C-alpha cells in the first residue's frame, strides 16, 4: 500500500527534523551561558518538543510498517 508508505516517510522526516531542532535549541542555550533558571525553562520546552517529535516520528514509522506489511 503505497498510500501509507509516502505519508509515513513524510511524518518520519518531520519528526526527525523536530528532534534535530530540539537538539540545536538546547545546544544554543548551553553555549549562550544562561543562568540555571533560564536554562531550565529552555530545557523544559525542548523536552516537550522532543517528545512530540518522537511521537510523530513513531507514527510515521508505524505507517511505513503497515504499508509494507499490506
Short description:
This protein is an all-alpha fold and 70 residues long. It has helices at residues 2-31, 36-69. The chain contains 2 helices and no strands.
Content-based structural category: mainly alpha
**What percentage of amino acids are in beta strands?**
under 5%
Q: pLDDT average, as an integer?
A: 94
The count of domains is 1
Tell me the major beta sheet: none
Written as H for each helix and E for each strand, in order along the chain, the element string is HH
Low-confidence stretches at least 5 residues in length (pLDDT < 50)?
none
Oligomer: single chain
Number of strands: 0
Keywords:
mainly alpha; 70 residues; rod-shaped
Describe this structure in words.
With about 70 residues, the chain is mainly α. The protein has one domain. Helices cover about 90% and strands about 0% of the residues. It contains 2 helices and no strands.
Q: How is this fold's topology laid out?
A:
Layout: H1 2-31, H2 36-69
Helix pairs in contact: 1-2
Amino acid at each position: 500500500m503505497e498510500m501509507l508508505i509516502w505519508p509515513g516517510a513524510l511524518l518520519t522526516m518531520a519528526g526527525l527534523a523536530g528532534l534535530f531542532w530540539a537538539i540545536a535549541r538546547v545546544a544554543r542555550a548551553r553555549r549562550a551561558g544562561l543562568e540555571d533558571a533560564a536554562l531550565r525553562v529552555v530545557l523544559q520546552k525542548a523536552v516537550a518538543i522532543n517528545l512530540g517529535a518522537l511521537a510523530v516520528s513513531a507514527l510515521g514509522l508505524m505507517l511505513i510498517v503497515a504499508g509494507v506489511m499490506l
